[in-house]
Amino acid sequence: MGSIFEKLWRLGPAAFVFKAIIAAIAADGLLLAFIFIRRTYRKRFFARRDKRVFELRQQWDALISGRMSYDRWRKKAFDRRIVEAMALDAFEAAGPAESARLLKFMRVSGLIEKRIFEAQHLRGWRRMRALVALGRTRAPEGVPALAEALRDRHLEIRLAALRGLGRTACPQAAEEILAWVGESGLTVPALPLQSALIQCCAERPQLLLPFVKQAEGPLREIMGRVLGEVATPALGLELLQFVGDEHEELRAAAARAMSHTNTGMAFDALSELAEDRTWFVRLRAIIGIGSLADPRAIPTLLKGLTDSNRLVRLRAAEALVQFRAVMVPVFQQVIQLADRYGLHAYLTAIENAGLREKLELQLQNSNMGEDELRRLQAVLHIGSLPPEEPERAEAAASPSESPL
Prior knowledge:
23 helices, single chain, Leucine-rich Repeat Variant
């Protein structure tokens, strides 16, 4: 009489199948046991955390103001993580006064210094977590540690540092990002870099100018997009050099910056950009010309009504409506364009501005002949060109543009 294992061994291949089934059942049992234990642990952990969050929330004002001793929670890693998470979440919806209060609390309690130390000395996901938390504080003293992480060999770390610098939204962070890009080139995806620079350069867009001039290729294109978003009227004359640039983003930036620079040079530049081959450059130029409210711009705006892009037509119409003293002559010229899309855009702008009655009154008080008056009133009433007017052929959108 042998043992059961000897009997199984004599069974040959059938024994291996049997043993495989037994092993699979045992493995499934272990996996189910692990899942059950893990769920039980997580349930207890979250219940404990929820209870502690509620307790700390009841004492939040005392905790933030320092009336509660920091030793009561700082020496316990569980409590410290909860307090830091609550403070960082509060930053997201806090106004200037509350943000200053929270930042002072995190400085005095040493939470910021702790995150700076971790960002400089930890590795892997722990460093990434520290960088993200440091960026959420928006603390200027965290900028050097974030800038140091930009030079890490791992892309995930560089992206975490870049997003952290972007959240600080301060010129010092912009200088660090631009210096790093100047050294290393484009080593991260374009969109995170563009977003971070837009946030950090909004206060001092002039920081971008030297780098835009020196950058080449895709990096110059990114810099142009950023400059187009943050350009201000103070940069108007400095951006004249980009009116004829090969990159449309830089031409759009020049148009945006000159929109409030009421000089003859700015008007001439905007008039030139209003005929640009790229639709969003024309759009920026039309918006800029409209903001100048210069009667010399009427011919350019009338031409904008025949543009192939819908947004350009609407903006041109909105700008024309501003010239309320000459609404009747402008209306006549709009009809003479014989462009039904342009006419619809102008009439829509008139309705949106609540000026329909004013235009009707000016038509009645004008000195034009009765036939012309009836013709204009009919166009205003039916909202379309009169039958005798030859309509212009519909402008076909070029392959590089969206007809919108």
